[in-house]
């Protein structure tokens, strides 16, 4: 089982707003809070967003370069995916592949693909 995921972000407030909404919509609960970060937990696994003091200056995250491409989460079903797709823009997410929604991952794979303002991609799959 996955223990945790830690995402270093350039703007903590923006990340808390977008990731907090997304994770809360998927049933994750606020877990930890400190000056430079926040976390949300589901079961024994947690996700951290942090504006680390060790963050190097630079161009930021690029999901198209070597490294993390995206995180995929399971939702409660198609209605939950549709609700996320509809509400995402109001919470700092933009749709990816909207012309192929909800089957951008292929026939029978009901999901929404979203990207936040910092370039992190999530896929939310109907559970």
TrEMBL record:
VOC domain mapped to chain residues: 1-127
Q: Where are the transmembrane segments?
A: none
Q: Which Gene3D superfamilies match?
A: 2,3-Dihydroxybiphenyl 1,2-Dioxygenase, domain 1 (3.10.180.10)
Name the source's superkingdom.
Answer: Bacteria
**One matching Pfam family:** Glyoxalase_4
PROSITE patterns assigned: VOC (PS51819)
**Know the name of this protein?**
Glyoxalase
**Source organism of the structure:** Streptomyces griseofuscus
